[in-house]
Each structure stands twice: as C-alpha cells, then as structure tokens.
Description:
Blueprint: H1 5-9, H2 14-34, H3 36-42, H4 48-70, H5 75-97, E1 99-101, E2 104-110, E3 115-118, H6 119-137, H7 145-163, H8 168-184, H9 189-212, H10 218-231, H11 238-250, H12 274-305, H13 311-335, H14 354-386
Antiparallel strand pairs: 1-2, 2-3
Helix pairs in contact: 2-4, 2-12, 4-14, 5-6, 5-7, 6-7, 6-8, 6-13, 7-8, 7-9, 8-9, 8-13, 11-12, 12-13, 13-14
Amino acid sequence: MHVNWLDKYFRGDRTIWMIVFILSLFSLIAVYSSTGTLAYKYKSGNTEYYLVKHLLILVFGIGLMYAAHLVKYTYYSRISQIAFYLAIPLLALTLAMGTNLNEASRWLTLPGINLSFQTSDLAKLALIIYVARMLSKKQENIKDFKTAFVPIMLPVLIICGLILPANFSTAAVLFATSCFLMFIGRINMKYIVMLGVIGAFCVSLFVGIALLTKSSGRVGTWKARIENFVKGDDQGNYQTQQAKIAIATGGLIGKFPGHSTQKNFLPHPYSDFIYAIIIEEEGSLGGVFIIFLYVLLFFRVIRFINHSPMAFGTLLAVGCTFSLVFQAMINMAVAVNLFPVTGQPLPMLSMGGTSIWFTSIAIGIVLSVSRQVEKEKKEGGAELATT
C-alpha cells in the first residue's frame, strides 16, 4: 500500500497540523510588522533582525512539536513526575532570585548561555500532565475525598500558589484548567467548588497582606487595572486606549500587512497586544478567522477523543488544548477591552522564546494522543476486515 510523505512524517490529526502552520504564518507577518519601532530603537533600524529571530524560534518550536508527537503519549505520564518535582524548586528560585521586570520575578536566567525563560511555562505544562495522570490512576475511587481529591488538589494549590505572586493571570488560567480537568475526570462537583473557594480565599489573603505592606508590588498593578476596567477609564490605561484605536481603524478588511500605525504607540504590539495589530492590518475578518482557528483546534481534539477509550490520553489532550484556547480567548478579550489587562501572550502568535516552545510541546503531546487514536482505529478496522 502506497503511503505518501504526509502520512509518513506528519501523523495525528492533519487539521491540527494545518492550524499550527496557519497561525505560524500569521505570527511571522504580525511580528515583522509590529517590531519596526523596536528595531529602530535597539537594532539601528535592522527590521529583519526580529523577523529572522522569530522565524528561528518558530522553526525550533515546530521541531519540538514534531519530536513530541513521535513519543508515545503514555511516556508523558512518567515524564510529568520528574517535571512536576523539578518545577516546584524552580518556581521558588524564580521568586527569590529571578530576573525582575515590571515588579515581577518571572524569569530565570541560565548561567553561561544567558538564556532567560519563564519557569511558569514549564510548571503549567507539568501540572496539566500530572493532574491528567493522577485523575486516570484514581478512576476506581474517583469520588473519594481522601484518596482521590486531596492528592490532586495539593499539587494544584502548590504550583498555582508559587506562580501567583508574580503572575496572577497565569496562575488563574492554570487553576481554571485544573478544575476543568477535574470536572472531566469525574471528581465530585462539591469538591471542585470547595477547591474554588479555597483558591479564592488564598488569593484574597495574599492580596490583603500585600496591600497592608509598604510596597504592594504586583497587587497594586492588579488593583489599578481592575479599577480602570470597571470604570471604563481608557485614560487610566494607555494600552487599552491604543488597542481600541487599532481595532477601530482596522475596519472590516484592515489596512493590510505592514500598514499599522498603532504599532508605534501601543506598548508590546508584538506580544500582549498582537491581536489588536492583526485586526488593524487584517481587519475584523482576520480577527474572526483567528478566533475560528482556536475554536477549530478545540473542536478537533473533542472530535478525536470521542473515539478514544484511553482515560489518560483523553484528559491529557483536553487539558493541554483547553489551556491554550482559554489563554488565547483571554488575550483576545483583553485586546478588545472585554477583560482587564493581563499580560498573557497569544499562543503561537505572540513573539516569544520559551513560551512558544512549551506551547509547541503541548500541541505535540496532543498530536501524540491523536496519532495513537488513529493507530488503534486502523488496527480495529483491520481486525474487523479479517473476521
């Protein structure tokens, strides 16, 4: 039987591969367009510098995705144990000694190679896989509080608690993803509600203590952003004001790539607010198309797990995909002023380094599950054909 090169090298759900390549193309166009000011400020007008850099990061990310999709998904169960216990000291080290930017210690700089990465990216993926592993192993007594819920709840509170002081939005997205996984994994609903109450209490306690100290740190920033959003005060939030202008001037079909004017005024147009630049240049149609791609990604995962009898594989694919799509929706909601400013990047679109790589690994894991589902379907079909 003839097997074409696509079937040979790009296994798993073909639509997901297509979504990744389309998002990467949009990312290259948007990043190149939005980094002009950055290039003139730091690279003497060399506008190709950030394009080439971003292209290399994307290519390496797709390479990681490809490698991850070749690994049988069951191996990630063991890997998650190592990654989870590695993430805890790394998060603590980041809080104590991490690179500080905007009153937040989110990055660790690796000595020797001078590479900085957000430890929360590693912790986020590690926790999702770990929770999926624990839920699948506890299915026989999944409704029990002591033997099922507590061993899953504690890791969630530990990881989210360590991320919270420097990055509330990431901690909130990860907490919501964990609760969603517990719901899918058949944890008793009253226990999930209890976890939500515990999480809210911990956040309130942290905020209260921070506001009582002389320097409230990130809490002061959170407070100002929420107050400006509730009041609808664009003057109090320069980012929101400039994003609105970008979206309003984009119209239906946009100004076309490279013709953005708000990239010169909007802070971080290549990362946190890249969606506003996309709408300005590709119009509302381009913005809707991006939303469609993320929704399609989630739909494709739901579609193939319906044919999967594998508890761990199902939870793993849903957890990784929900986290990415939920983060994307928050980023886009911020850009159109439906949500307070959070600083969450747009997965596979925003300029970045390790954030793109960990996102790529997460998609690769989803493709690994999809590849196994397809393999079992083919083997099942072959067995039926021989009987």
